[in-house]
Amino acid sequence: MSQRKKLLERAQNGADLNGEDFRTLARAFGIEVRPSAGGGSHFGLYCAPTRRIQTVTVPGAGAVKRCYVKALLEIIEEIESVRDQTDKGENGDERE
To answer: Global pTM?
Structure first.
């Protein structure tokens, strides 16, 4: 199983993610993780396919708050939905 799938399953099952795992999972789905202009532990998640921007707090050490992991999972679901719709369109199937 790939690292991407393992991290996704851990997040979906409610396991704690540290900052590095959180950033790795986001990047695995093409989500840019950018530090805020003010620095610190605030980051912006930028998702081009869904045009969504989400600000999160990612600690240098310790677990990322569950609410931010849930926000990341929502963005990932949106990305997969967009990809599914794109795949249907490319295969000649009717889009919903």
So the answer is: 0.77
